[in-house]
Amino acid sequence: MSTGSTPLFRRSILGTAICAVMLTGCGGSDSDSGMSFPEGAIMLPADNLTQAAKEAFITAESGDVIVFPEGRFEISDTLTFDGDSDGDGIPIKNITIMGYGKDKTILDFENSGGGDGIFVQNAADIEVRDLAVYEAPNNAIKMTNTNGIILDDVATVWEGELNSGNGAYGLYPVQCQNILIEDSYVRGSADAGIYVGQAENVVVRRNIAEENVAGIEIENTVNADVYDNVATGNTGGILVFDLPIGQGYYGSNVRVFDNLVEANNTDNFANTSDFAAGVHIVPPGTGVIVLSTPDVEIYNNIITDHDTLAVAITSYALADSAVVDPTAEGFMEYMNIVNDGWPVVPRRVHLHDNDISVSGTNPRGKLISDIIAGYLLDPSKGEMPAVLYDGLGELLANTGELEVTLGTPFALDGSDSNCAANNGNISYGQVFGTNPEDPQNWVPVRDETGNVILDGNGNPVVEPAPRLLLEKTQSELLACENVPARLPASQATIAGKSYGCGSDETGDASAASCAL
Amino acid sequence: MKFENLSKTTIGIAVAALLTACGGGGGGGSSTDTNDNTDTGTTQSACESTTGTINQQALASENCTSLSSYRLFANDANPTANPNGTGIPFDLNTPLFTDYATKYRFVFVPEGEQAQYSENEAFDFPVGTVITKTFALPADTAHRGYENETLIETRLLIHRENGWIALPYVWNDAGTKATLALAGDASERSITHNGSQFDFTYRVPDANQCKQCHQFKEDSNSSVSKITPIGPKARSLNGNFDYEDGTLNQLTYWSDAGILAGLPADMNSVPQIPAYKDGDEQGLDSKTDAELLDLAKGYLDTNCAHCHRPEGGASNTGLNLEFWRDFETNKTAHGVCKRPVAYGGGTLSFDIVPGDANSSIMHFRMNSDEPGDRMPEIGRSLVHTEGVALIGAWINSLTGTCGG
To answer: With left for phi above 0 and alpha for psi between -120 and 50, is residue B146 left, alpha or beta?
Structure first.
């Protein structure tokens, strides 16, 4: 080949690798491992794997199957995939990045010069399967601006002691659509093991999230089904959050069902600051948390053995009072984000038919330390409720005076209400009452000398009074007269095929969950 | 599409292998491209064309192995001076930091054509435009200049019919030849800056990492994210440059040279990032709060805002740092008392804590050289001490408290 012309990769090792594999078996199968790969699969060599993988990622064409070799390999930089490397605006599709199994192909980023392990951007219909990403300095597998993602049988792991030096997210699709995450394993993440953020049409099933700060987190996401997973040993098991990000992506219609959420009692090892954000506000020993997201259905889960709370449902007002304080510096900007679509107060959260047991055995957590103390020190209570609702956002919304951040008062017919029923013989608690007409729900504001502050009309200025309500057997708290409507099932459509309870998929191992 | 010629070649080899091993049965999975040029090896490549001063034919279609094939410079071994054709050198008022490398930038707008002025975005350059940026490391930053420097890499942005393409070329040790390195490169380097020696790994981004910064989503609902130039914006070019024929405002010069259309007659209406160069940190103490804000916003714009904007790669973070974005009414978007969305924060709570740089995640990440912590996450291995000093001084000048 003459100098100065294409082909550019004439020294590439890809060619040789492909030849070698073809010699071992024409169908593209590897008889030693029992794995089979399609004809024409790009078999990456063990030698100089970082370089080879980068070349394969950059030169990939639609339909390519890129196979990492069997073994544990040190990778020296982030492996970045872009769906349109040459920038002509036509994305390639149907790419598979795979290994020989999540216990057989281990990509070790311990000494990588890049932050993320595998980073996918601007792609369409991409599948990552049968490999593991270990010890990424930042995120293990991050994906952005991609429509159509399958993460199947992958592992993201930070080994050894759990500490803040571990990477942030394990499986991390953000600002993506149509995402299927299944049969995967995430461990040791200092943020969320599985984190789906600012996304749409999501199915997360049959994964194991173990010993992360958050096991599984669905954040600012519309249409997500999380089912048949195991979340255990995390700080918090499964989180459904909506945060004030201000980029137009906010959540609703999230279903969490038929999961085993057990013993998520690991101390929060990521962030020790006083005003921590995101998952770092999670009190250790919490099973499921809903923060701000409306239209969430949590049902038929086993939620057991949690030191602090089995289930928490809360508005953002508990995380930052500035959102309900028009005199606070951040209030105006919160208002802008609310105009962008952010929900501050969760509505229509429905918790039903869960098997909830053993909760509140060793409650702790900075954000709620006052609440914990209040419950434990009151001799008439002396315990933490298993299910806790903040009530604060609803109370303030119901005054009608903070509509700019909290939305309209909850509908009188109950159609906005958060409801819980048939969750076992457990206690329920609520930090604030929700009826603004009830004087017990307000307390006068006093100045430094203890005098009640009066407004211009001589009336006392009041603020919400924490009630720390507790029902050892559910009576009125979160009890709804009318059973809320079930939420629609979600589906993820990748390369023309749909997955999840909302699809016509056949042969799904978790089909029984869909029937619940 | 992907790098067409390149992958065809790779796949060509793969198919050949298949045919050999399998006795000619079946074609390769992805090799059915009917436009596949099966006789690449024998056809005269545009890279070898000798037509014209600059090899426009190759620029338009080929990712040549050698940078010299494009004939952009009079001296193949010196991409820091003497551009061929319409090439014009340029600088940015406040540059992006890359390990104290010297950067030599040139723009080549096709003869008789013009870029269209834009107030806030990179200029709209005509098809055929090439922008080159060469990175060279001096042994000591006190003595810069081609003679004192080692050529490391030259990055090309070429505007082709279907869009921009980003090509990284890496120079050989002798500095005589630059070769296309789509998968990037890493090399051990050493540099002395202000009397201290730094040994570090210099990383040439791979082609996909190029796009990580050089991308622009025009429509947040679309997954199409095109490659775009970053540097040549009005606010960054609006400053003087020492041309061979005298010192002139770059925008005026471009306009006069006929490569820029639409420059407002009133130059006061053209935005301008204030210059902040190494050494300027000495004067930070005497800056007013307003001056610090202006300098900081300029620095954050060129170093961060290509990703940290709604159309950029870091759109998920909610941190938006474009120079034109008003600070007073968008403090949260600038990071003030903003809880991080995509970063744990270590022991820190907010992107920026007014008056307390050392408690601010932005300052911490800029001051880190650890992968996973450092920002920008690609494009540097060293900490830009001068930039950190500026952002530190600015954060410390801010007032207010972050609530809980």
So the answer is: alpha
